[in-house]
Design a protein that fits this description.
Length: 382
């Protein structure tokens, strides 16, 4: 079905970006998955092509285009199974903090180079002891004259190895009550003294995306690296998490489509009992059910994307989409894998990668259980 949110301009951009992905990204995905990280040059090529920050302001090198151009980039990368470079974290999750809350000097320093692919961005919320309960972060950034002194550790940070700057969620007022009022966001440069990267973590899926522990030991950063105002960090996070979660839904739908397309093609070719497995009613019904659910999910995500572009506050609805689409992705990848039989379990068959990659979608960006907590609250419960 034709998707109504995209104009001809978006579709031209999609065709152009797809050619770029086929030429510059897809041939390297296997190697990057093996290495657990992508080549630095991939970021610069993405930046040069104008694929990082289409939605960012023109005065800093962006295209000033609507967010749907960034959505096209997300969809094409997810459909190509390219989880590195992790452009969505960089462009759609981190950059908005700079565009919305950054000072002119911060925008000139970080945003311009982020758009060109020279400054890879990461955001560090999660800590070894604190994930879902974000208000309870233990990392501290204590003001000392013209500097903040940052101490603490973070974990599971996407782009943790590649990043040149990281937005650190830290307590500037550890005594604040309630605790979320003490949270601030601080930009830490990749080469700041006292900032160390830990391991590039080995994981089940998203193999090419580097995910790391980060350590801050008396890490001194200039006081003007504070994003926005002191104590406003939690509010800023809540404002931007809507887009982060919507992006996860966008990626989930594109990944579902890829799994389905590949499985339909396989079902037409693979024979059992003298006929293609797609001739069995079970295969037809399974794929018909998944195709229906994908259309339904896409319609909801597109409706939310249109509302998001209009600037509406749709936190509860986005939470619904985040849990529902990622849950669907898990089911789609599992059902499709089953139709590949034993081949589905083999690394050479990308459906096995889809199955592994789907697992994290229900966990990061706020777990699906937390999404239901948010929805229940909106219903007046809890
Ligand atoms: C590949 C990957 C990339 C990531 N990238 C980043 C990143 O770039 N930046 C970043 O900051 N973080 C990142 N994360 C971390 C991710 O956001 C957290 O893992 C996630 O928020 C969950 O936190 P946790 O792992 O501490 O789980 P916990 O919070 O310990 O939760 C454990 C379980 O308890 C459940 N639970 C917790 N509280 C409740 C509740 N109130 N009600 C019901 N159930 C509850 C959870 O749903 C979950 O099932 C990444 C994680 C992964 C795996």
């Amino acid at each position: 079905m034709r998707r109504e949110i995209f104009s001809d301009e978006h579709e031209h951009f999609r065709a152009e970006f797809r050619r770029f992905v086929d030429a510059e990204i897809v041939p390297h995905v296997a190697e990057w998955n093996e290495n657990g990280i992508c080549d630095r040059s991939a970021w610069r090529k993405m930046g040069k092509g104008g694929y990082l920050g289409a939605n960012a302001p023109e005065e800093y090198g962006g295209a000033g285009a609507d967010f749907l151009f960034d959505v096209v980039v997300m969809e094409e990368l997810a459909y190509s199974r390219a989880h590195a470079p992790q452009a969505s974290v960089h462009t759609d999750i981190c950059m908005p903090y700079l565009t919305s809350f950054g000072s002119k000097a911060q925008k000139e320093k970080y945003l311009t180079r982020a758009i060109s692919g020279e400054c890879v961005l990461a955001i560090a919320m999660t800590e070894p002891g604190t994930g879902s309960d974000l208000a309870n972060v233990q990392t501290r950034a204590i003001r000392d004259g013209d500097e903040y002194v940052v101490n603490g550790s973070k974990t599971f940070i996407s782009n943790g190895q590649s990043c040149d700057a990281v937005i650190v969620v830290a307590k500037t007022d550890p005594e604040a009550s309630p605790p979320h009022r003490g949270i601030s966001l601080i930009m830490v440069d990749g080469d700041a003294p006292g900032f160390e990267r830990g391991r590039n973590l080995k994981k089940l899926g998203l193999k090419g995306q580097d995910t790391s522990e980060l350590f801050f030991k008396d890490c001194r950063v200039p006081a003007n690296n504070l994003l926005g105002q002191e104590g406003q960090g939690f509010k800023m996070l809540m404002e931007k998490l809507q887009q982060e979660r919507l992006c996860i839904g966008v990626g989930s739908m594109a990944s579902c489509r890829r799994s389905l397309d590949d499985t339909v093609a396989y079902a037409k070719e693979r024979k059992a009992f003298g006929q293609p497995i797609g001739q069995f009613q079970n295969t037809q019904f399974k794929l018909a059910e998944l195709a229906s659910q994908i259309e339904i999910g896409q319609a909801f995500v597109d409706k939310l994307l249109a509302a998001h572009v209009r600037g509406e506050e749709i936190v509860a609805e986005v939470s619904m989409a985040k849990w529902w689409t990622t849950d669907l992705q898990r089911r789609v990848s599992a059902e499709c894998l089953q139709l590949f039989g034993g081949y589905g379990f083999m690394d050479e068959y990308p459906i096995s990668q889809d199955y592994a990659d789907a697992a994290v979608q229900t966990i990061y960006g706020g777990t699906n259980e937390i999404m239901k907590v948010i929805i229940a609250r909106k219903l007046g419960l809890g």
